[in-house]
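Continuing the batch. This is chain 6 of the set; chains 1 through 5 are on the previous pages. Same settings as before, nothing changed between runs. Recording input and output for traceability.
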Amino acid sequence: MTSARFPTIATLSLAAAGCAASASPPPDAPPAVAVAAVTDSAVSRAVVAAGSLGAVNESELAFAVPGILAEVRVRAGVRVARGAVLATLDPQAVAAQRSGAEAALEKAERDLVRARRLHADSVIALGMLQDAETAVTAARAQVDAARFATRTAMIVAPAGGIVVSIHRDPGSVLGAGEPVLRFAGTSGGTVFRAGLADRDALAIGVGDAAEVRLDALPDRVFTGRVRERAAIPSPGTATYATEIALEGADDLPRGLAGTATIVPKGVVAARLVPLAALLEADGDRGAVFVVREGRATRAEVRLGRIVGDRVVVLAGLDSARRVVTAGAAYLTDGAAVRELPR
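Output for chain 6:
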């Protein structure tokens, strides 16, 4: 966890705290305002995306054979050690399946002994003997499957980790491979998963620096780097799944929602204004007063990330070169203004 190096505009209630401190101008004179220059600079274009916390090694766990879910021995959110039993199938159903398979094998073997004797006495044809031999082979396969079911009638933790969620309740009839719970191993580390639009996905690359803010922990900033970016969009969302490997987040519950800010290695030309110039800001939208030829005009702007005491303006300034930083509380759109000495 480190202090923020490149925060975004999340909720800025900047509405001119310093502006209100100015004395009200005389009614017969234009209001006095402080003005600062708009600066042009080359900055990294930050990519912002919502997502949630997860684990590198995260998977759905299921039984390899069908059956009735007898018991789930854990709760969502608990930590478990490698090899811990997480869920079991109904042992009676598994035992009955094995007993039935073994009984069927015994009968098939008796039938084969009889078929061989009858074939030796020329009572039955060779085809009937071969059918009996095939029946024994099939019965042995059923016994092997039943014994496998006995060995796999429980789900065990493949590694030390956290039970993220439980999908089925005891008594549920399960098919082979049907997910019972979601498991996150802790050995591989923690990631923040987000879906990026195509334009943003093209702008970033593996290794780009990122910072993550979680909704539940607004005062903490987690640093990391892009670990993986999907080559094709996810079905349904048309976004590119992106993983950010985080530092210092291994002890947090999985699934926490938040926002990631990724800064690509490349730079783009951008316009910056002082934070004090913002009249208001909500997400990536805001407003400023620009000054041209002695008049102040309100401009709606689209905001990027914060750089020191300035904020990147992505659109809305056009050719404006100066913005009001104090005194905006007394302005109306298009009003004449008097600039204070710098």
